[in-house]
Amino acid sequence: MTARSQTKTLIAGALLVAAIGAVLRLWHIASTPMWLDEAYSAYAAGKGFAFLWQVVPRYETHPPFYYSLLRLWTLAFGDGLVAERALGLAAGLATPFAIAWIAAAAGAWLDWDVPRRRALVFVAFALACLAIPLVEMAREVRPYPVMILVFALTTRALIAIARQREAGRPLAGPAFAVYLVGLESMLWLHNLGPLWAAALGLACLIAFQAHRASWTDWGWFVGGHAAVAILYLPALAMLIDQAPTWVRSTWLSFGAQGLADHLPVLYAVPGWQGLAAAVLLVLAIMILVRQARAQRLLTMLLILAILPTMLSILLSITIAPVFITRTLTPVAVPWLVLLAIGAAGQRGKAAWLGAGAALMLAANMLAVDVQMRGSPPIQNWYGALRWLQPRHRPDDLILAYPNEGALPLERALQDKALAWRVMPVPVAVPALDQGGWHPTGSRGVVSLPKARLEAIARSPRIAAPRRIWLLRLGNTTYDPGDMFLTALRRDRRMTARFVDGPIDIIALDRK
Length: 511
Fold this sequence. Notes:
Blueprint: H1 3-26, H2 36-45, H3 49-54, H4 56-59, H5 65-77, H6 81-109, H7 114-130, H8 132-137, H9 144-166, H10 174-189, H11 193-208, H12 215-249, H13 256-266, H14 274-288, H15 292-318, H16 332-344, H17 349-373, H18 381-388, E1 397-400, H19 406-415, E2 421-424, H20 450-457, H21 460-463, E3 467-473, H22 475-478, H23 483-488, E4 492-500, E5 503-510
Parallel strand pairs: 1-2, 1-3
Antiparallel strand pairs: 3-5, 4-5
Helix pairs in contact: 1-6, 1-7, 2-5, 6-7, 6-9, 6-16, 7-16, 7-17, 9-10, 9-11, 10-11, 10-12, 11-15, 14-15, 14-16, 14-17, 15-16, 16-17
Protein name: Glycosyltransferase RgtA/B/C/D-like domain-containing protein
Keywords: Membrane, Transmembrane, Transmembrane helix
Organism: Sphingomonas natans
């Protein structure tokens, strides 16, 4: 194949996978309701900046930085369902290009010839377009798609730092500035930001090549990281304040089965097709262990791909469960670059092995993506409204216990232009200083004692309507023994019930 024909083939292939990736990210994006976590984001973004920076830190474990970004986004583009998802979608659509940029920089650093570099960029781009966690996170009104993009751009900056240090140039410059901004952003985007900072900092130390550093370079290195640490102190104070509540009453659990279920998805290798990824990883290692600069690249990518997950597992074992697949999705970025190196870097018969493994992996990811797009939403609030509409009357009252259940319900009501009365119990999020305990680790959501629930059930506002609806999310956690339901049934009888996953809605009519 001539160079011109190879270029045309790769461009055509890139356009095809880009279109497929865009379709997968857009599929049902306007018809899938927000689930609880997304509703939290939309709720916070609907408030003013004073609420975001003064109230959110009192109950939310995450820093308010992402909510502020979403607030600015909605002020510019509106607060409709598609508008709010568009921030993550924009980041998700940009991420494959950022990963291709990383692959291009890696190929140039390794002094590969032009055909291999082009193949590397194409494979990295194609895998990024189809990667299961990248497709899924691009659809969420959560910080994860932004984190993935920031992590990718920071990884690209690290390769630039490594190349300029190898060439004997000073550390100070645009690449180091981009790295520091990315490092600070990762710290402020999520409460597990220190895990990402640890991986990025260690990778930066390898790129820095301390043995070749001057005192001026050391000053920039230490001073830059010190500035990042100082700017992070307010978020660290929020994390320290919230951590005890999370540790005492987290809803998460951690075990070997969870790792077995989630790690393959996190690293884009579900099912038996993980063999293809293993082949690509072995091929990549065989390529990168041959020279010093390639060994540095291999070490940096492995640290970025594995260390955050290892630290998350360690924290889950020793302190409190924090391991959640979606919080670790940025590790897919360096991992996909490694797999692309394995696919494009070999010659001869091994090249056919790498191409076949990459094709097998891409086909499997596409099949899983399509299957997931056809699956029901995480929480089907639109389905709940369809069931409720013919049964709901204008004077009905919906009680949301715990109070956070009102967030996705009210969001779905807004999307469907329905003005129904909803009463969060005991009060709207955040239910600060309301007594009770916090079974999910959030001070904004409480489980109330029996006497308090009985008093609420007898209150005039709840006693007046002829029919009330009790919405429960996680009733075994927040209402063990059905205490609130029992209190409401003292003067009422159950007449209808809707259960779909965690959504439990009960109609209670006056006797």
